[in-house]
Amino acid sequence: MPKGSEELTNSRKEEIINACALLYEDHGFKDISIRDIGAKTSFTRTSIYNYFQTKEEIFLALLQREYEAWISDLKNIMSENDSLSAEGFADKLSKSLERRGCMLKLMSMNLYDMEGNSRIENLVAFKLVYADAMRILSCCLEKFFSKMSANDIQEFIYALFPFMFGVYPYTNATPKQKEAMELAHVNYARYSVYEITNSFIKRMLAPFGR
Q: Which helix (H) or strand (E) holds 65?
């Protein structure tokens, strides 16, 4: 048992978020309830309300944790490399996003529900981490691509982040979606997160490569 109320609170929150993440691997957002999440924790379902008021707040906390993990990856890219070509940076950035499947899924599928049904303080906490991800990525670009102006970096950021919101659906079509595309004679090419993001990032950085 953690010592101190703050440590206990953080431990309980982490357990709730872990339970949510586990359920989200095999179930849809709409199919998961606070009751389901509570059943995966070591304490009563009603205790969850001491930490989160809605299931959307739990999912938002999961998304925030995913962004924090991505930020850590971005910092490692920056600290472990003195220089990178456009191809090298695209490779590392794409691999970092490939590891964040849960983040990409939440962004594309459930963001509006999470933000709409979370308290403002929870939403602000998430937005601060979201902004930090943009800041760290900007720092990476400043370090590795000296030819990029401040406006170039901003354009890259504002192209990449909206692009990220659409990556998951393009790389994770359901069997039903695939069947519908076949019946509609839609040519469906399967790409991984790495493949689709690597191609996009390389094209964006090509003018600034060393």
A: helix 55-80
Nearest to 57 by CA among 121, 4, 8, 152: 121
List helix spans (H) across the chain.
5-24, 34-39, 55-80, 86-98, 101-116, 120-144, 150-171, 175-183, 193-205
**Maximum CA extent, the chain:** 61
Residue 97: name the closest of 127, 122, 124, 77 by CA.
77
- Architecture of the domain made up of 55-208: Orthogonal Bundle (1.10)
Give residue 101's identity as a one-letter amino acid code: G
Q: Which CATH architecture has domain 1-51?
A: Orthogonal Bundle (1.10)
- In a 3-state reduction of DSSP, which class is residue 180? helix
Handedness of CA 58, 60, 64, 67 (dihedral sign): positive
Q: Is the pTM here over 0.85, yes or no? A: yes
pLDDT tens-digit map of 30-59: 999 999 999 999 887 788 999 999 999 999
